[in-house]
């Protein structure tokens, strides 16, 4: 069983990796697109609502017209006129004071389901029979005084819907005309999804009869936040508009509220020239502005006549309680804690300013389509990118989505960028996981390749070290080559730029009198040059020891034989010479090499340059020879271009001038001292830079004939 599970897991892993993770990401995108197209608030309502709240916070609505004025029964008014509830006569005075400024409508965001307890008849009922009781009973009631004031002004009352039989609630209300247009519906049918309340709590029937309209103030809180407000509700079987809508109807003088509905619910509500697109339940999103204290005036200022005579003219006035402990404070979508009446005022303002927020039913399909297109693009593109490029691209795409959401919000459309971005994030996460897995696998592969390369390099380094030891061992050692020799002194140095190199030197006695010496430079570097260097050295020595007649014949024959053993088409520059140790006669042949230097006393003389091409360039070439007569104490210095062309970190070469300056005055020094001085000066010039070429030196001093 465990083995079978491991096989299944391996198959699932192979399936996830197939197509660079594209099939898995595409399969994940299908249910995510369906979730975005989910009706109502979608599959992730908290995320969507939080985004819409963020839009409101970032782009609050700008107040343009200010058509609503809230008359607040605040702390100042309560201190002046006493605690709430006031006598209805006081409320009538407030309505008369507001009506005197000729507002378009006056809304009372108050519920008055019971008779005024301070009314004369209520006081009379608590007295013993007598003249005082009879006199109080004969006076007009406070409720009648309020009703009279309401008949003189365009007053709209508030009514609250209840799902249960609350004290004082009724199942019948006085209603004003509501015209319903609903295709295919039976006569008297209500639109689907509209909030239904079996009962409602309103004001006294006396007051309802005196009012110009009634509006619902019920709103469902979404986790304590007011984001949407219903413009319509049903009490029993009667459609009742919301307070904001009814105030607009009274203010515009319209005879009815028009409701356009269909089988899917309410589509739009119209009052006069205003037409508002709604959700299926008749609710609208409230477009909030920043808190506006100028929206409020104190009831005390109004009743004391402190306002300008036209402060309320042609405005919609809403009377509401804002005093401590009396106001029904609500949290709006911006997070502002304000009296509930502020919601009605802001809703009316947004209608007047043409700044309604809309989320059409087709928006969810637009979001699903947007997601599908972007997800398809990501599924195609991300697997082609490296992980470090895919992450910024995904973040930039999320930023563009939120920017588009803000732009649409400014235009009054609610686009769920968070839902689209969240769904895309899951698709990206699937692709990122595949990219990360591919990167991990690639890194492990690189580590394995690096490990193999290091092992191979270590093996090669060992082989090269062995080759270096063999190469260096093939070179003669000046200190032990000529024991007891006093006629001449010689020293040589070879330092390859790599483990092995192509420079060479050699020296040996042809007979008791004649010393043969050679210094050369094979073209190229590394192992091929070093192998050819060994061949060149061996062949040159072999030809020289055959007893060839003269220096020219030795070089001529060595050139021919090297050409036959040269599959890589390399060539060799060299200086070869024979010194007669008894007479100091020097016979020299230069095959394409730098001119040797003759140190005589304090002078440095550069001998003639090359008389012929490098070896292995022309097969049958007769190399001419140069003849010199050395004086006792003269020093001959041969070097490869690894000395004069040595470069420091800045690319500056060592050069012939510096070498000549160093050798000047060293004619009396031993060959070992000259070699050591040149090597140390070249090293000081190069510093920490990588050696650019092999370095070889050979210094010979003729002391004179043996005594």
Topology:
Elements: H1 2-17, H2 22-36, H3 45-58, E1 68-73, H4 75-81, H5 88-99, E2 105-108, H6 120-125, H7 131-138, H8 142-151, E3 155-162, E4 178-182, E5 196-197, E6 199-201, H9 205-210, E7 213-216, E8 225-226, E9 228-230, E10 232-235, E11 238-241, H10 243-252, E12 257-262, E13 265-271, E14 274-277, E15 283-285, E16 296-298, H11 299-303, E17 316-321, E18 329-332, E19 337-339, H12 341-352, H13 363-381, H14 387-410, H15 417-474, H16 478-481, E20 488-495, E21 503-509, E22 514-522, H17 526-545, H18 551-564, E23 572-580, E24 585-591, E25 597-600, E26 603-606, E27 626-629, E28 635-639, H19 641-644, H20 656-663, H21 671-686, E29 695-702
Protein name: CHASE2 domain-containing protein
Keywords: Hydrolase, Membrane, Transmembrane, Transmembrane helix
GO molecular function: phosphatase activity
Helix and strand composition category: alpha/beta
Total beta-strand segments: 29
Percentage of residues assigned to helices: 40-55%
What percent of residues are in strands?
15-25%
Helix run count: 21
């Amino acid at each position: 069983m465990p083995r079978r599970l491991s096989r299944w897991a391996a198959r699932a892993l192979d399936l996830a990796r197939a197509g660079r993770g594209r099939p898995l990401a595409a399969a994940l995108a299908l249910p995510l697109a369906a979730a975005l197209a989910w009706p109502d608030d979608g599959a992730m309502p908290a995320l969507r609502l939080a985004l819409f709240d963020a839009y409101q916070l970032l782009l609050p609505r700008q107040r343009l017209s200010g058509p609503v004025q809230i008359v607040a029964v605040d702390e100042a008014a309560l201190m002046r006129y006493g605690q709430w509830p006031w006598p209805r006569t006081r409320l009538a005075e407030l309505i008369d004071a507001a009506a005197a400024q000729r507002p378009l409508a006056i809304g009372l965001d108050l519920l008055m389901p019971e008779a005024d307890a301070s009314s004369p008849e209520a006081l009379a009922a608590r007295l013993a029979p007598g003249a005082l009781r009879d006199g109080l009973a004969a006076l007009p009631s406070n409720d009648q005084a309020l009703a009279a004031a309401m008949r003189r002004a365009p007053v709209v009352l508030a009514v609250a819907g209840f799902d249960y039989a609350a004290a004082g609630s009724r199942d019948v209300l006085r209603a004003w005309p509501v015209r319903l247009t609903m295709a295919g519906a039976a006569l008297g049918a209500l639109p689907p999804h509209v909030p239904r309340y079996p009962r409602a709590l309103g004001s006294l029937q006396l007051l309802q009869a005196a009012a110009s309209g009634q509006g619902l103030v019920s709103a469902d809180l979404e986790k304590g936040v007011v984001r949407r407000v219903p413009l319509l509700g049903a009490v029993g079987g009667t459609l009742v508009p919301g307070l904001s809508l009814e105030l607009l109807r009274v203010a515009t003088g319209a005879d009815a509220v028009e409701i356009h509905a269909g089988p899917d619910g309410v589509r739009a509500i119209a009052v006069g020239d205003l037409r508002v697109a709604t959700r299926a339940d008749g609710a609208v999103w409230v477009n909030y502005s920043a808190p506006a204290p100028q929206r409020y005036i104190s009831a005390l200022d109004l009743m004391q006549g402190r306002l300008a005579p036209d402060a309320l003219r042609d405005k919609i006035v809403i009377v509401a309680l804002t005093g401590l402990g009396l106001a029904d404070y609500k949290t709006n979508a911006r997070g502002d804690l304000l009296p509930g009446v502020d919601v009605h005022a802001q809703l009316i303002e947004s209608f007047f300013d043409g700044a309604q927020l809309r989320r059409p039913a087709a928006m969810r399909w637009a979001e699903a389509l947007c997601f599908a297109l972007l997800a398809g693009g990501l599924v195609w593109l991300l697997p082609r990118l490296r992980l470090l490029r895919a992450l910024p691209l995904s973040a930039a795409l999320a930023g563009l989505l939120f920017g588009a959401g803000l732009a649409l919000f400014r235009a009054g459309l609610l686009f769920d960028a968070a839902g689209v971005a969240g769904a895309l994030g899951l698709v990206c996460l699937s692709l990122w996981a595949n990219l990360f897995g591919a990167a991990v696998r690639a890194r492990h592969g690189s580590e394995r390749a690096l490990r193999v390369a290091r092992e191979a390099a270590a093996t090669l380094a060992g082989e090269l070290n062995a080759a270096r030891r063999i190469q260096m061992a093939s070179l003669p050692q000046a200190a032990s080559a000529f024991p007891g020799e006093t006629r001449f002194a010689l020293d040589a140095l070879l330092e390859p730029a790599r483990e092995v190199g192509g420079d060479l030197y050699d020296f040996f006695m042809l007979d008791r009198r004649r010393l043969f010496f050679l210094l050369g430079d094979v073209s190229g570097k590394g192992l091929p040059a070093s192998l050819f260097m060994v061949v060149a050295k061996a062949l040159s020595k072999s030809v020289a020891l055959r007893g060839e007649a003269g220096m020219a014949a030795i070089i001529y024959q060595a050139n021919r034989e090297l050409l036959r053993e040269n599959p890589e088409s390399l060539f060799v520059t060299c200086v070869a010479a024979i010194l007669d140790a008894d007479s100091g006669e020097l016979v020299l042949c230069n095959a394409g090499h730098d001119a040797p230097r003759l140190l005589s006393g304090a002078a440095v003389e550069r001998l003639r340059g090359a008389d012929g091409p490098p070896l292995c360039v022309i097969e049958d070439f007769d190399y001419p020879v140069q003849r010199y007569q050395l004086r006792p104490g003269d020093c001959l210095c041969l070097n490869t271009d690894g000395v004069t062309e040595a470069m420091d970190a800045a690319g500056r070469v060592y050069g012939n001038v510096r070498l000549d300056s160093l050798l000047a005055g060293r004619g009396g020094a031993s060959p070992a001292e000259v070699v050591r001085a040149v090597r140390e000066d070249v090293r000081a010039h190069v510093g920490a830079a990588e050696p650019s070429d092999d370095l070889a030196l050979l210094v010979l001093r003729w002391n004179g004939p043996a005594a």
